[in-house]
Specification:
This protein is an all-alpha fold and 161 residues long. The protein has helices at 2-30, 35-42, 48-52, 55-69, 77-104, 112-118, 128-160. The longest helix is centred in the C-terminal third of the chain and has 33 residues, at 128-160. Keywords: Membrane, Transmembrane, Transmembrane helix.
Length: 161
């Protein structure tokens, strides 16, 4: 059972990497967009990225279980590192990204689950003056998440070897 837990943890960490890496890779192209175009493009991520986003908290739980079931005396530092890195990426989402996602989706028709999720936390409004700062915060948050989940992916794959 232990190998299955480790493999499941690795798969969930990889799935958590996918949306963060996708956001980081699209950044150069999106920076060329005008504010109105940028906001329109942001709406294409829902609901797909919301669904894949469920992998992240599941990865945290799976990596915790993976680290805890590893036999005593085994070098387990990489699994603990992966857990901390995915946990940090999740914290970055809630601190740097979530409030801005609420703005991008404020005019979208969301499912009940989407409304509940994106309704969580304080809301923010953007005007011309705060748009650039908020966009930069959202983009840098996703780059940080890509770095953190990328590091977690490497650590967990090395731990599996």
């Amino acid at each position: 059972m232990e190998p299955v837990i480790h493999i499941l943890g690795a798969l969930l960490v990889i799935l958590a990497l996918v949306p963060a890496l996708a956001h980081a890779l699209e950044l150069p192209g999106k920076r060329r967009l005008e504010p109105g175009e940028y906001v329109s493009v942001q709406r294409i991520y829902y609901p797909g990225f919301t669904v894949i986003g469920a992998a992240e908290p599941l990865a945290i739980v799976a990596m915790l279980v993976s680290a805890l079931v590893t036999p005593a005396g085994t070098d387990n530092r990489l699994r603990w590192f992966a857990l901390l890195a995915v946990g940090a990426a999740h914290a970055v989402y809630w601190i740097r990204v979530h409030r801005i996602n609420q703005v991008w989706l404020r005019d979208e028709r969301l499912t009940a689950a989407g409304s509940a999720f994106f309704g969580a936390g304080p809301r923010v409004d953007l005007d011309e003056a705060t748009f650039v700062r908020s966009r930069r915060q959202w983009e840098r948050g996703h780059v940080a998440r890509a770095v953190l989940t990328g590091a977690a992916t490497i650590a967990v794959l090395i731990a599996l070897a």
